[in-house]
Amino acid sequence: MTHPETARDIAAAVQAGQTTAIEVLETRLARIEQIDQQLGCFQQVRAETARADAHRVDEAIARGEAAGPLAGVPIAIKDNIMVQGEPATCGSRILEHYVAPYEATAIERLRAAGAVMLGRTRCDEFAMGSSTEHCAFGPVHNPWCHTRVPGGSSGGSAAAVAAGLVPCALGSDTGGSIRQPASLCGVTGLKPSGGRISRWGLVSFAPSMDQIGPFTRDAADAALLLQVMAGQDHRDDTSAEAIPPSGLQGLDAPLQGLRIGVPAEHCSADNHPEVNAAVERAVDTFKSLGATVCDVQLKTTELGVACYYVVGPAEASSNLARFDGIRYGRRADAPGVELEELYARSRSEGLGAEARRRIMLGTWVLSAGYYDAYYRRALQVRRLIHDEYAALFKQVDLLLGPTVPAPAFKLGEMADPIDMYLCDTYTVTANIAGICGMSIPGGLADVDGDTLPVGLHLQGPVLGEDRILQAAHQFQQATDYHLSQPPGAATSTCS
User: What φ, ψ does residue 105 adopt, rounded to 5°?
Assistant: First the structure.
């Protein structure tokens, strides 16, 4: 099986004159036209403006100018990241006609590096979901099996990379929304540390945990995109003043002396057996590469989901209050009603069930009489989670485990929201603690006759992206799981 074109391949070929940015773009547009009607990855394909971007790259190269490390690379953008002059619906009817008045810092930096913004991908409404079934404009289908979910909330971006529609895409991760769909779609997904990439231009869900990050075919492309987007931004007070990530430098350094811990709590007997088998294979691979692997405990794992679903909805209830039909968002056609009634009708019409559920939950835990019992207590648990990670990273350099407990489930199968929330058991604590994490392909599993990807979860300390990218790259040099592609683009072969 041939390796799909990486961002590095494309940029090198465009810069060398072996192809042009417009030729690369037209190939991807044709592929989208061919198969995305069945997948539903894209909310909007910006063909004409993308062609204009590609022509600018080609013209710069023709003049002998440096076109940037992402010259001509088509990139898809999750629909909660601002691209000036384009719709940003966040998967919600309440923002169906909203047009972004400014550009996200991450987009500015990608554009300056020569990338071509190809289109906007579907996501769960306001990034609230683990399946991309909660998008007001329709679900996204997993390229490996069209009857199954791609994960969420960044399911459109993950599926677009897995299906070869784009070489890379942007997502956002508040509790696992990059890593979980990366696992379910069989691609690489990086959630940087809090503050590593500016959140300016990302529509907030829970700002203390939100982070923009890339989906790519492999760790080297993830390192390249991180290097382009990272860095302090005066428009985002939470962006970190830190040494820039190394990018492609250092990825080939050997892993001798690397200490990897495997949390026992993440290798539960309740996991799908092939998920645990993938971790066991990865342990053997990392040992063969010179790393030392040991068992560790991450006792606060069991507290993560409960903590997250207090803190996250609390922040969301505050952030989403602005979408009331007056300041922002769709306004109900209700002449003559009182202001509160107009708010209620506008939000009821514009917001879906999951968004309303989380807003009400967040409002409840912040209300008088419940603030101390729930929200303040959740903040105390957050400190416990943070401190346990900090202590653990004095003993080991990285943590290894499964990204999610099981491969992709079927569309409509997980009706109980609690079951859906538990999909993020192994990912939410990284956001709570502000550390970095990434999912890489770890093999394929047979589930009821369907062949589905399994993801491995690497976690590192705050601003420790270089180390997890190095480990992921070395693992991918020694294995070929990341080269696996969905069986057939135009038709699903699953049961």
Answer: -60, -40
**Can you list the residues of the chain whose pLDDT is less than 70?**
1-4, 488-495
pLDDT value of position 329: 87
Farthest-apart Cα atoms in the chain, separation = 72
Give the C-alpha separation, 128 to 154, whole Å. Answer: 10
177 is catalytic: yes
Which member of 153, 204, 317, 439 is catalytic?
153
**Is 198 among the residues known to form the active site?**
no
Q: Is 321 helix (H, G, I), strand (E, B) or coil?
A: helix
> Any idea which residue has 């990608």 for tokens?
110
CA dihedral 32, 33, 34, 40 (to 10 degrees): 60
Q: What is the pLDDT of residue 311?
A: 98
Could you state, in order of their start, the residue ranges of all structural domains in the chain? Answer: 7-300+384-483, 301-383
- The single-letter code of the amino acid at 340 is E
Active site residue 153: yes
As a whole number, the mean pLDDT across the chain is 95
Task: Give the pLDDT score at 179.
Answer: 98
Neighbouring C-beta atoms of residue 306, cutoff 10 Å: 15
What backbone phi and psi angles, to 5 degrees, belong to 142?
A: -70, 125
Task: State how far the Cα of 258 lies from the Cα of 249, in Å rounded to an integer.
Answer: 17
Q: How far apart are CA 465 and CA 196, in angstroms?
A: 9
CA 353, 359, 360, 361 dihedral sign is: positive
Hey, what CATH class is 7-300+384-483 in? alpha beta
Question: Parallel, antiparallel, or unpaired: how do β-strands 212-216 and 398-402 relate?
Answer: unpaired
Which one is catalytic: 78, 154, 317, 492?
78
Q: Identify residue 433 by its one-letter amino acid code.
A: A
Query: What is the C-alpha to C-alpha distance for residues 268 and 197, in angstroms, rounded to an integer?
Result: 33
Give per-residue pLDDT as tens, 55-103.
999 999 999 998 999 999 999 999 999 999 999 999 999 999 999 999 9
> What is the amino acid identity at position 329?
G
The whole-model pTM stands at 0.96
Out of 130, 177, 193, 239, pick the active-site residue.
Answer: 177
Q: Note the pLDDT of residue 420.
A: 95
